[in-house]
């Protein structure tokens, strides 16, 4: 093997180690976020506990089949597990036209997705604007999910499991959203709020 070939081989090996290290950190972060022990992840994925531990410590290069099993157990895409990390600081700007908008069934409440789309599998962040009487009915999110609604203007009402609570400007409501829930803009004025949903990250009693 010539010098050029040796250099390319070293580059490939270095790249593989970086990718493997990023993947190990991602798997460990997700496992801890979902409050799973190594044994529990091993049981859910069918991958040996010792192998998962080695992956997290960047001591082995797992097969694609192993990565797929872990991604399925953690309920994420393979692309996300394999995504390379970037520790460099950055600034990312989104225009109004680039911001996705969700609309309630009654057409009176609009949610702009202002959070980072790359985190939407575990953290969702919305700017909520509603006409008076607007209602957003939502199905259950993943178990352990929590939502926080901070009212900026007007008045909102949240109903979860038959329990209703109201919040005015400057007040916030935090509630379990791993069951059907509704958000309503009450009163005769438009409302605006920030809504943050943390999926699978909360340990509930």
Automatic annotation (TrEMBL):
It comes from the Bacteria. InterPro entries: Cro/C1-type_HTH, Cupin_2, Lambda_DNA-bd_dom_sf, RmlC-like_jellyroll, RmlC_Cupin_sf, TransReg_Diox_bact_type. CDD domains: cupin_XRE_C, HTH_XRE. This is Transcriptional regulator with XRE-family HTH domain. Keywords: DNA-binding, Transcription, Transcription regulation. One of its GO terms (cellular component) is cytosol. Residues 27-81 form the HTH cro/C1-type domain. The keyword Signal does not apply. It comes from Microvirga lupini. One of its GO terms (molecular function) is DNA-binding transcription factor activity. Pfam families: Cupin_2, HTH_3. Gene3D superfamilies: Jelly Rolls, lambda repressor-like DNA-binding domains.
